[in-house]
Amino acid sequence: MRTPIIAANWKMHKTVAEAKDFCRAFLASYEPDGGEVVLCPPFTALGAVAELLQGTEVKLGAQDLFWEEKGAYTGEIAPGMLVDVGCHYVIIGHSERRGYFGETDADVNRKVRAALAHDLKPIICLGESLEQREAGQTEKVVTAQVRSAYEGIDASLAAGTVIAYEPIWAIGTGRNATPEEANRVIGLIRQTIADIYDEETAGQIRIQYGGSVNKENIAQFMEQPEIDGALVGGASLDPAGFAVIARGGRS
Predict the structure, then answer these.
(1) pLDDT, tens digit, for every residue of 68-85?
(2) Is the pLDDT of residue 190 over 90?
(3) Which of 31, 89, 35 is nearest to 60 (CA)?
(4) Which listed residue (36, 96, 103, 166) is catalytic?
(5) Residue 118 annotated to the active site
(6) What is the 3-state secondary structure (H, E, C) of the chain?
(7) Catalytic residue selected from 36, 94, 96, 226
(8) Residue 174: what pLDDT?
(9) Torsion sign (Cα): 98, 104, 110, 112
(10) CB-CB contact of 123 with 76 (8 Å)
């Protein structure tokens, strides 16, 4: 039985003070129910959020990393730095990183390797554009992204990763894939993992859905057998609303 995982991607939102206010409000209203919850604030708020999450079941995650240990890489963050501040998870390959900053599938693979080498659990994002979907290329695009992300990674390490299927056309648009369609594509992703490794490994990897998830629709997605959670963007910025999402929509 896979443990559900709900992750909040705050993107470029919240000052340190705002992040602290969120954590206090969220922790006051959230009651753990056996699932896993991850908060991914901007780099500047990681330390402050880490302090407030100490002694709770909520995990800390980062929104990105670089694949080198250290060096002359102005503006980048090394995996060890994230571990040092208390991160357990890191988002890798988000479509905004791919689209705005030119990250490639090869870059994603390097980042996944770097995260695993430092015992960080990567949340590997993938998904197709609207143009690709309308051209009937969803399966081709998604399976290629999966195969590239896991290239050269041992099954024992792969089993602890998380995948977030986020169709690009649904991110921040108010549009979302139907629960049934998201489940279908996530089933395809899981089958691709089985083809790369084996059925056991495919059964261990948790796969989230992301793309305009909110407190009104989260329960519909969580009812699907292949969907193990959600990577939540804009709807994760409100502590009360995210507390509902973190419970899978249960009040």
Answers:
(1) 999 999 999 999 999 999
(2) yes
(3) 89
(4) 166
(5) no
(6) CCCCEEEEECCCCCCHHHHHHHHHHHHHHCCCCCCEEEEECCHHHHHHHHHHHCCCCCEEEECCCCCCCCCCCCCCCCHHHHHHHCCCEEEECCHHHHHHHCCCHHHHHHHHHHHHHCCCEEEEEECCCHHHHHCCCHHHHHHHHHHHHCCCCCHHHHCCCEEEECCHHHCCCCCCCCHHHHHHHHHHHHHHHHHHCCHHHHHHCEEEECCCCCCCCHHHHHCCCCCCEEEECHHHCCHHHHHHHHCCCCC
(7) 94
(8) 74
(9) positive
(10) no
pLDDT tens, residue by residue, 41-59: 999 999 999 999 999 999 9
CA dist 38 and 57 (Å) reads 9
Does the model's pTM come out above 0.85? yes
Decide if 166 is catalytic: yes
Q: Which pLDDT value is given to residue 251?
A: 59
| CATH numeric code, 5-246 | 3.20.20.70
CA distance 8 to 166: 14
Q: At what angle do helices 16-29 and 46-53 cross, to 10 degrees?
A: 20
